Structure formats: C-alpha cells, structure tokens
Amino acid sequence: MENFIFYNPVKILFGKGQIANIAAEIPADAKILLTYGGGSIKSNGVYDQVKSALAGRNVIEFGGIEPNPHLETLLQAVELVRKENINFLLAVGGGSVVDGTKFIAAAVPFVGDPWDILAKQATVKTAVPFGVVLTLPATGSEMNTSSVVTKWETQEKLYFSSPLVYPRFSVLDPETTYSLPQRQISNGIVDAYTHVMEQYLTYPVNAPLQDRWAESILKTLIEEGPKTLANPQDYDARANVMWSATLALNGLIGAGVPQDWATHMIGHELTALHGLDHAQTLAIVLPSTLSIRRDRKWQKLLQYAQRVWNIVNGSEEERVTEAIDKTRNFFESVGVRTRLSDYGVGIDTIPVIIERFEKRGFVALGEHQDVNPQVVEQILTLSA
Asked: I need a labelling partner for 247 at 20 to 30 A (CA). Which of 126, 185, 189, 211 fits?
C-alpha cells in the first residue's frame, strides 16, 4: 500500500427531514448566499424546506447555475458575494451547483484572475465557508475537495482541488431525489460507478480493504441502482445509492492506492465540445479505456470479473472481455448509451481533443502515466 494522508472534515446529516437542522450548522450572524440551479428545488419542496429552516436569517439568493457550471455565471455570483459582504454560502442542488459554489468560495478572496485557479492551478489560500443540501447523488462533491467548471466562451472544462473547499456540512436526504428525471438518476448511477472504477481498476498494491470497499460500492450500485429507476419512491434504494455516490469519491477508497482518471479527462473534453452530460461521456469512454488498457490492468480486471460480476469460468482472456462487456451492458441497462454515435458525435472530434491534450500538456495520464494522446486516440476510435 502506498503512503497516504486521509483527512475529511465534512459533517454529514443523512436521512429524511434533515434539512430542518441546517440552521444549527450555520453561524447565527452569517450573511448567507443560497445558490441553486434551474429552479427544480422550487417545484419539489426542497426550496421551501430550506427557507423554512433559515427563517429569520439574512439570506440572498443566486439561481441559474448550469449543469457543468459556467465560469461566466459563477463570476456574477463572486461579484455579488463581494458587493454584499456575504460570509457563508449554501449550495442547494446537485454536483454542478456544489462544484460551482466551491469555485465561488475560492474565487471571492482570490487575488487576480479567478480562472487561474482552474487554468493555471493557482493556489487557493482561503475560501468562504459553505454548506450543501444535496438533491442529486452522483458526483460526490458534497464530501470532497474537487470542483469542475466550464469556461463557455472557449469551451474548456477544467478542475481544481483544495482542502479549503471541503463543505462544512452536507445534508443527504434521499427524499429530495424522488422527483428527479430518469435521465439524472441514470447519470448518477454511472457517475458514481465510474468514480469507483477510476480508483479501483488500476493495478494491485496489496490494499485488500480499499479493494473490498470499492467492490462493495460497485455491487451496491448494480443491485440498488435499477430499483431507483423501477420505483422512484423506494426510500431504501434511494438511500443506498445516495450514500454509495458519496463514498465513491470522498477519498476513502482511494487512500493508498493508484488512481487512473484518464476516462474523466477525456470525458471532460466531450462535454466541453458537444454538451454531453458528464455521465454520458464516462459511459462512452470507460469501456473503451478498459479494453485498450486491458494489458496494463489485467490483474485487477480479473479480480473485478470474479468479485463484482461473479465471472469464474473461461480463460483469463474470456473473463476479462466478459467483465468489460458487462460494464458496458450495465450502463446501457440503466439508460445511458455508450457510443459516440449514440449522441450524434462523429470521429472528426478526435483530432480536436488530441490537439487540446497536447496543448495543455496532458501527455502522461493514467495510473502508469502512459496514456498519451496516441492512446487517447485509440480509446476514442473504439468509442465511435
């Protein structure tokens, strides 16, 4: 096992009715900015619950944060926070709202161009404190340090990470997810699943506990995910998927083990260029990545085949191939297509992505740092 430092200070308030308790988590004299997305929280009752919990508090609202939050929109919020001397943020929504709020929190006190936080990985020295009321289980952003933001003007999707943007608390109430469209439920399952795979399906380092944690999350998503699609009011299934998505990317299963993340880097370009949902890009890229990198991932693919999919018969080659096929089929079974052509994206996008990778210096991705632009081209070609 590799050396690691694990730190996660996020307080989780899990379960039905927990939104009512957020006032106790926010300083009484705080001037609060409530951030949210397209307004679905106003139709599903979440907004009313939040406003009720914060009755009598000093609250200003900022809505309209997009899926794959736009830098241009977030900078408007940054100016509002500065102008109004707001000192606490509350993100109410899915991963995009949380990611956007993390950027706002880091950008408000940042000296210089806030885009440098993403484009130049400029150091975040301080951040505005914030909390989360999660309405879409998928990204794990409610319990980690990462944020992904899109600069709409240049079609760039980049990320930053800082321990200063851990939420102070996150409310996870499965009932807030009941009204989600099927597409968002499906995307959340695929997103969480791929987060686990990026940390788990690399190469062995004798970390059996992390492996089994990862495998248990994958198996839970396989078992519980379809239940949430079949019955949106299944509280237990919603709860299990919600907690799985959080644990998939809160740092625990990735402690002390190699990590990949090439699939995500490729996927970000597909979203930036073509507007695909984040999870859709992961469903396209992951099976092809596993196929192209199978020799480098061989041992973990065999372990994955046996422990997650119960594949024990056939040659090693056959078991590896079946495991990759079952991964693709699972994504398809929960309603997320797995080919570029399914979304009307042609192979003419491949050289554009390769050029972007070379321009940014993304020439040594993956757990072995050997996923170069040529390998990315192979992966995308297989994904057509």
From this structure: 126
